[in-house]
Amino acid sequence: MAFSRLYACDTCEAGEAVLTFAETWGADSSESAPSPYPGFGNVQGLFSMLWCRTCRAVRPCILLRLQPPAAHAVVAYAEAQRQGLTGYEAGVCQECQGALIASGEGEPCPVCAIGTLRLIGEWEDAA
């Protein structure tokens, strides 16, 4: 199951970012921007939605590709565990080639650029 964190701007009411870690994606998703998949079917792998410091936006980062795809998400999570992956691994932004990080804490607000993002909630996503 994926884990998510919500960050909100400490100054304006509009700035926020939801980072998601170790989400599954299926065969119908594009590789450049994987989308959440409920867990059953042709699971291609795991991805995280991380913060790009350069873009000041949330961007996808592929964590694990399964070859061949699996029939259930549990295979992807078991393979990630076998490889020692946590879901919080950093990556490279596909848009700007900047660094993707697993936290938005203290980052500049993507809307007002005056405030900073602060963690206000976290939860485990149900599949």
What structural class do the secondary elements suggest?
Answer: mainly beta
Characterize the biggest β-sheet: 7 strands, antiparallel
Helix content, binned percent: under 10%
Strand content: over 45%
- Which overall shape is indicated by the principal axes computed on the Cα atoms? elongated
H/E element string? Answer: EEEEHEEE
Low-pLDDT parts are 29-39
| Overall number of strands | 7
Radius of gyration: 15 Å
Mean pLDDT: 87
Beginning-to-end CA distance, first to last residue: 6 Å
Number of helices: 1
Tally of discrete structural domains: 1
Helices, strands, pairings?
Elements (H helix, E strand, L loop, with lengths): L2 E7 L6 E11 L13 E13 L4 E16 H10 L8 E2 L6 E3 L15 E8 L3
List keywords for this structure.
127 residues, mainly beta, seven-stranded antiparallel sheet, 1 helix, 7 strands
Please explain how this structure is put together.
It is elongated, with a radius of gyration of 15 Å. The protein has 127 residues and is mostly beta strands. It has one helix spanning 73-82; strands spanning 3-9, 16-26, 40-52, 57-72, 91-92, 99-101, 117-124. It has one helix and seven strands, in the order ββββαβββ.
Short description:
This protein is mainly beta and 127 residues long. 8% of the residues lie in helices and 47% in strands.
